[in-house]
Amino acid sequence: MSGQEGIDRLLQAEQDATEIVAKARKEKAARIKQARDEAEAEVKQYRSKLEQQFQESQSMAMGGSDKSVALAVETEKGLSDITRLAESNRVKVVREILTWVSSVDTTPPVA
């Protein structure tokens, strides 16, 4: 019977070791999950901080936006005026260019 008792003890020790290893794996997985969650929270907090800084810098840059908007409107108006004038004078300019090209004096200069 002592042989059977030794085998039983070995089987029990193996089962205990298996349980210990399984418990250690579960604890490791829990620690990894906790670390991942903490890292995600830290990244989210950092991203939020950067977004806030970006929004603040944008609002500060837009503080002068009244002047920028007025300048953009004025520029757009000027461009539309130039485009309108160019379209209205396009035919006249083409005619004048054709007149200049077709009325070239081809007589040689007197030496």
Jot down its keywords:
mainly alpha; 2 helices; elongated
Describe the structure.
This protein is mainly alpha-helical. 90% of the residues lie in helices and 0% in strands. The protein is built from two helices and no strands. The longest helix is centred in the N-terminal third of the chain and has 62 residues, at 2-63. The protein is elongated, with a radius of gyration of 43 Å. It starts with a helix and ends in a 9-residue tail after the last helix.
The number of E-state strands comes to 0
Which descriptor suits the 3D outline?
A: elongated
Please describe the biggest sheet, giving its number of strands, its sense, and whether it closes into a barrel: none
Mean pLDDT: 86
- Name the helix and strand elements from N-terminus to C-terminus, one letter apiece: HH
How far apart are the termini?
139 Å
The fraction of residues in strands falls at under 5%
- Category from helices, strands and their pairing: mainly alpha
Layout: helices, strands, pairs:
Layout: H1 2-63, H2 65-102
Summarize the structure.
The protein is mainly α and 111 residues long. Helices cover 90% and strands 0% of the residues.
